[in-house]
Each structure stands twice: as structure tokens, then as C-alpha cells.
Amino acid sequence: MRGLLCERLCENAAVIGQTVSHYRVLDRLGSGGMGVVYRAEDLRLRRTVALKFLHPAANADATARERFLREAHCVARLDHPNVCTVFEIDTTGDDQMFIAMAYYEGETLAQRLKKGPLDVHEAIGITLQVLAGLGYAHEERLYHRDIKPSNLMITRRGEVKILDFGIARPAGDTAITQVGSVVGTTPYMSPEQLMGYEVDQRSDLWAVGVLLTEMVTGERPFRGDDSLVRRSILSSDPEPITNIPTGEVHLLHPVISRALAKEPEERYQTAREMHDHLRRIQDGLAATIAGPATARSEPPPSIAVLPLSDLSSGHDQEYFCAGLSEELISSLTRLQGLRVASRTSSFQFKDRAVDVRRIGAELNVRTVLEGSVRKSGNRLRITVQLTDVSAGYSLWAARYDREMEDIFAIQEEIAESIADTLRKTFDIPLEGTAVRRQTGDLEAYHAYLKGRYFWNKRTEEDLRKGIDFFQEAVGKDPRFALAHAGLADSHLLLGIYGAASPREVMPEARDAAARALELDKTLAEAHTSRACVAAVYDWDWPAAEESFQRAIRLAPGYATARQWYAINTLTPLMRFEEAAAELETALQLDPLSLPVSSSLAIQRFYARQYPAAIEQCRRVLEIDPDFALARFFLGLSYAEEGRPQEAVHELRAAAHEGSAEMMAGLAYTYGRYGAKQEARSILEELLERSRQRYVSPALIAQVQVGLGDMSAAMEWLDWAVEAHATELVWLRVRPFFDRLYDEPGFNELLDRLGLPA
Q: Of 106, 189, 253, 394, which is most buried, counting CB atoms within 10 Å of its CB?
């Protein structure tokens, strides 16, 4: 032993009442792996503090002393309500190290859990505070590595304080803990931590997943003796949650599953991401508890048309079922006063056994139409049922046993019967007619439905298949306006997606839209396509705006018109508030649409509202973690926020699918943050690809900006103008091009595009 104080620390009670520096020790609070903690009085400032002394046995160990000192340094630089405050570090006369910290009245989470599991709402509240504190520490590049109940203090006011950063490590610091060494508390350790691999913030988030499970169930997700727990963490699924209400299990399961993913890349990537997800769950639970007085108001007269099920023996009528459902949606949108959930949202429930009440709640509609199709030879049996989701009873049902040639009459009968039922049920004057017959040619109609089926898949291959079927449809019936509109939509998307040269496909889209409108001036789809061509190809902003507004007047419930108006016209013209309003409306119309939700993130990004863009991208990725567009703009937003590591992580994931635009975004970010070799490697790949197929010159210009070659960037932008590259519409709002504002000719370029300077 070294000195009197060391001896007294070993005696536990002997130090009580002694004065250390300017602190009078009052009583012992507890001990941990590295130290003993006492409650003490600060004699100078007359406040109660906690003194943490390094264990006497460890005090002589240089490594332990260094780790103890590092804990003080790490926590002292953190200033957050959910992190324990450190006042100072000092030594006693006989060289015994101690840390003076804030003292909190309350109990640790470990003490709280001895009384039993927590209410789900309380558990979420505690978890949110832990994530807030960890998020702050992670932003300071500090990883705790030992999150567990005994290291969390819950004060009498309900505040959560993260304690004991004794094995925390700053990012990149391996001076104390070498790769290959295992530190932490086994039941809360991530697989990579158990294996002695390098860890980062995602290991802390794994521990939070364990904590959340333990709080709501009273049991950890991996159980047994130490060796069994280790094996389970590395190779087994967590124990299922069985002792809380089913609805709460449903809400918490995706959070816990993601936090406890074996691979770090599959978990939440930041504490903020997990925090935001849990916050939305908390808000939803609060609304449920509050009841009818504060719950969402009764939706207006509204309907969701679910995709009809294919009950044919060959199960080969998927295109027909999807097409018939889509045509019913389009027909019903013609009724003024009725809100119709879009195809994108309704089709989210395809092949899913979901109660209509839940569908109504998620889509915010009062009625749901569902049914099936059975085809045998030329005979059809179509059954449909309209359900009031609030009461759960059928408003109307019908069965149609007809020949295939009667499909047009059946479609009209269903649409009109629904309209009549809704008028009577809700006592409302739905104006207009739901009938929109476009062709009497059965073969043309089937070709059109196949075209729409492939168009909705949105890949280059499927868009080209769609074009073939739409051309077949107009070949059989040249006056089939919807088929011409389908041709316009398909050519348009090939150009916007960069799958074909704009000069190749945009004139085709313009001509097809014009022909559709010659045949039927009321087609909102054709007005929307014509508007989009006017914006992204012709740079004719007045014409684009007029056509978009015409489409919205004709079909106020057509979410795509509002989405494209916002992104392709209002945003390029820097009318950000109007764009946001249109996108919010589109999202109300199409609440489960990933493209619409992502467009809201894109608008935020172009408006330089990066935190809001990040939050919106996270919302999309909670629904579909693999949705590349949201991951791409999440990465770009991180890059503009000065968070290159997170940016590259997201952009690499997005670019994995091989999109030229996403590869260019990654290359720009590499170049901007000094990884010139990686940026040039992607640039060479894009240039090589451009020798085989179209690659937008605007994307090459973007990479050149990242590499710092402004002269080359301007040359590529000139070529982009000649090619009528669709990306040019965002030249004024894309942050990538901010560095070109002082380049000769850039303002003239904006003038040529009709964009604000």
C-alpha cells in the first residue's frame, strides 16, 4: 500500500469524515471496475460533489492511471444535460488520483430495474435521453463502450446522466486500448466489441438496444452464463419480446432489431437517427393514449383502392389486376370532393394480410376498396367490397361474372357504384363522373395495362418494355389518349434518370404528350408530362408552370403533378416555400410514397436546410433502408454539413447500384475532402462509361468542381447545355456549383437557362 489514504480507501469507512484537498468526504456511494466513489462536500463552493478515486491496487499501474486521467479529460470536454459533469482532477498528498464530479440525487437504472420492468413510455423516455447524451459524445468523436444500467443515473427530476467514461475512447486513439483487446461488460457488448475489433458509435447503439429490451421486459435479449451470452451475441437472434402489449411490441420491434443487427452497417448509423425514430414512436403512443379529444381528426370523404388479388389458376394476371386497380384510382380522382389515396401508397399493402382499420389509419382514409380477379379462358369473375374502416363494416359489395369483352362496362359500373355509395354514406355532393373510357379495343387496353405495369417498376429495362407495350396499344388504337400519355411518361423518365440522351427521348416525350392532349385535353397525366419536358429540357419556365397548374386543377389529388412541379420548376427557380407547400400536399395525398418523401428531402437540401433534409431522409430510410435516393441525399447533406465520413458511408451505399449521378456525388465528395485519387478513379470510370452510353456532362462538371478544376468544370457545363442535360435545371440551387459563381461565363450560363442569378 502507498500511504495513509490508500489504506483508508481499502478500509472503505475509514476515509469517511476526512478532508481531501478542499473536499470533506461524507459517505461511500459505490465502486466500479476502476474506482471507488464517495459523496463529499466542496468546502470552497458549499456544494455536494462526487469524488471518484482510482482503486488503490490500480493506482500504481501506469496504464490504469492513464486510463483514469483520460476519463477525466474526455468527460470534462463534454457539456451536455445527459452527461455527468466533471469539475476537476487532482491528486492527494500521497499521489492518489481522484476526479471531482457533479453529485446527483436519484438512483441508477440498475437500481430501478431491480423493482421490475418499466412502462414502455418511461423506457422510451429514458432511452431518448441516453441517445441525446451519446449523440453529443459521438459528435465529439468519443465512444463510451460500456453503456449499461449501472452507468446511467436517473435523478429525482427524471433526468438521465451517463456516468463512467472509464473505458471510453476517442476516435482513432489506440494508445490505451489496442485492437484485439476486449473491454466492456459482456451482456451489453456488440459482436465486434466481443471480437476485439475496432468499434465506433454503432457499438454504443447496440448497447442501447440491449438496454431498451431490458427496460421493457426485465430481461436482457441474450441470456445465460458468460460463455452462452458470448455465443448468442455472435450468432443467435435476441430472445423475442412477449410480455408487453402486442401493439407496443409491433412498434418497438423494428427499433430493437435494427439496433441489435449483427453487422454494424445494418444498425442505426448515428444516435440521432435512432433518437428520431423513437421520438416518432413516442409521439404516436402519446396520441393513442390521449384518445379522441386529441387524436387526428376524422379524415374527409376518402378512399384507398387496394390492388386486386389474382385468384386465376395460373396466377398470370398480375398486370391485369394491377392495371384495373390503377384505372379505378384514376377514375375516382375525377370526382371533386373525394380524396383518393395514390397508387404508390395503396399498393404498399399488396400481398399483405393487414386489417383495413390499420390501412385506413396509415393512409388517413375513411373507406377501403378491396377485391379479387379470377380469369378462366375468356371468363372473368371480379369481386369487390367497399369497407368503412372506422366501423369495420361493409358499405357495398358486388360480384361480376362476365366475358372479358365486358371489362370496360364492369370498370364503369364499379366506379359509379362506389361514387353513389359514398354520396349516400357521407351525404356529400361528389361532383363529376368517375367514368373515363379511353378505348373500346380490348387488345389495345391489355397492351396499355402491360405498359403501365412495367412503367411502374421504374428501371431502364422496364421503362423500355413499357414503351414497347404503349406503342403496341397506340398501334391498335391510335386515338387511345392514355397510351400516348404512357409513352410520354416513359420517354420522360428515361431522360430524367439519365438512362438515355435527353435529345433522344425528350422530343419523343413532348410529341406523345401533345398527341394525348389533342385527343383528351382533360388528361392530367399528359399535362404533367408536357410541363416536365418544358422545364427540364426546354427551360421554358412559364410554359412549364402553366401546364403543371392545369394538371393540378384537373386532378387535385394527382400527387405526381405536385411533386414534379415542386422539384422541377419551383425549386430550380428558388421558390422554396411554394415548393415545400406542394410537396407537403403531395405527401398528404401519397403518405407512403418513398419518391414523394424523398423529394421533400431533396427540396430541403436545395434550400440549404441540411438538418431538415437529413431528418427527412432518415424518415424515408426507416421505411426502406435500401432506398438509394434517400441514402444519396442523406450523404450529400452530411457532406454539406462538414461530416465527410458519414457522407462517404451513405454515398458509397447509394452508388453501389451503379447510377452515374450517385457515382458523381461520391466522387465530388471525395474530391472536396481531399481524397483526390478516389475521385479521379470514379471520374475515369464515368468517362469510360460515356464512350459506351450517355452520361450527363453536368455530372462530369460536378466531379471536376470537387477536384478543384473550375476551368474543366465550365467546359463540361457548356457541353451539358448543348446536350440539354436535365441536371442543369438545378444549376442555381445545387451546392456543388457554388464555387463557380465567380468563374467567367457562369452568370451567362444561368441566363441561357432562364435561372435566377
A: 189
